[in-house]
Write a structure and sequence with these properties.
Elements (H helix, E strand, L loop, with lengths): L2 H36 L1 E7 L4 E4 L3 H4 L12 H6 L6 H12 L6 E8 L5 E13 L5 E10 L1 H15 L9 H12 L5 E8 L1 H8 L1 H18 L5 E6 L2 E6 L6 H15 L2 E3 L2 E3 L2 E8 L6 H17 L4 E4 L2 E5 L1
Parallel strand pairs: 11-12
Antiparallel strand pairs: 1-2, 1-5, 3-4, 4-5, 6-8, 6-11, 7-8, 9-10, 12-13
Helix pairs in contact: 7-8, 8-9
Length: 321
């Protein structure tokens, strides 16, 4: 073969190789655009070296890094796992490598360099093995699930919290009541505001809402962490107190809550003054949440019938303003 023919064949091969590189580059760009459009990130791990091949740039960008700023390596990925999730994620990953699971899957958090948290659904499986059966390559996807997680948390909050005050709603109170009742003595305080309607009538419903918000904050400041505070509608509040009716803490908290209610509220369009009738009763062994609330409500009405602004423990009025 002449030197000229050989030179021509080499030139043709170079042109063909350049064409294949352009096709590969174009295909990779199209794949990256398609994956970015769906929110997916495609990755492949070379197990022996730990090198990660990322087929689009979302993996780094979701962690707050520029394209060449973050080295795509297994160790870097591991360092960005949320500390509370790291053990679970690595266990799931190595279980698959060791053949204990048919694939790797984990819903977990990753930490960006600025401290922001990203929820990721990570999936993968071994796609190449050595002759002696050791995993060589793992191919998988991960997708940013942060918005879905935030939406899920918002739904959970709506399901268990009063939308105005953020306090526990009836559903959450009932669940907590069932739990606390198994742990020991439990008392229920029923707080009904006095003269609250007058606030709505004279200052408007927005001012009424502001009073409820301020009172909710005052109740938090008046109660220790072990007390569950809830609103069951309108101007009615419930406290779950993990003590018997005669425990001194119950009396003390009730007095603090009464003070919180009768202290005037400073609003943008004036001052509002309300009071509170508070009834506290102890839960019986066979009580449902509703039965326990009814008895606390009956204690509260002892105050309503005798002049408002006071506290009744069971059938005993301990303070009346």
């Amino acid at each position: 073969m002449s030197e000229e023919i050989l030179r021509q064949q080499i030139q043709n091969l170079k042109k063909h190789n350049a064409r294949l590189k352009r096709i590969a580059h174009d295909s990779r760009n199209k794949l990256s655009a398609a994956l970015d459009g769906t929110g997916l990130c495609l990755w492949q791990l070379d197990v022996p070296s730990g090198k990660l091949v990322i087929f689009n740039r979302r993996w780094g960008s979701m962690l707050g890094f520029q394209p060449k700023e973050l080295s795509a390596h297994f160790d870097v990925w591991r360092e960005h796992l949320h500390p509370e999730d790291k053990e679970m994620v690595l266990s799931a990953f190595y279980n698959h490598l060791e053949g204990k699971a048919p694939f790797y899957e984990a819903l977990h958090r990753m930490q960006a360099k600025n401290g922001a948290i990203t929820w990721v659904l990570d999936r993968g499986r071994v796609t190449e093995w050595s002759d002696d059966g050791k995993p060589l390559k793992v191919t998988g996807t991960h997708i940013d699930m942060t918005k879905e997680k935030q939406y899920e948390q918002q739904l959970a909050k709506l399901a268990n919290h009063d939308p105005l005050t953020g306090l526990a709603n009836r559903h959450a109170l009932q669940a907590q009541f069932d739990l606390l009742k198994k742990l020991g003595p439990l008392s229920i305080a029923f707080i009904d505001l006095d003269d609250f309607k007058n606030v709505n009538d004279t200052l408007g419903h927005r001012s009424g809402d502001e009073v409820l918000l301020q009172l909710s904050q005052r109740l938090h400041e008046s109660c220790p962490p072990e007390v569950t505070i809830g609103r069951i509608g309108g101007d009615e509040f419930i406290l779950l107190l993990p003590w018997s009716l005669e425990h001194p803490e119950v009396n003390h908290i009730a007095r603090c809550c009464l003070d919180a209610a009768i202290t005037p509220f400073e609003l943008g369009n004036g001052a509002a003054k309300v009071g509170a009738s508070i009834g506290v009763n102890e839960s019986w062994a066979d009580d449902t949440f509703n039965n326990a609330v009814i008895r606390a409500d009956e204690s509260m009405y002892l105050i309503k019938r005798t002049g408002k602004n006071g506290i009744a423990l069971g059938v005993r009025i301990i303070i009346q303003s």
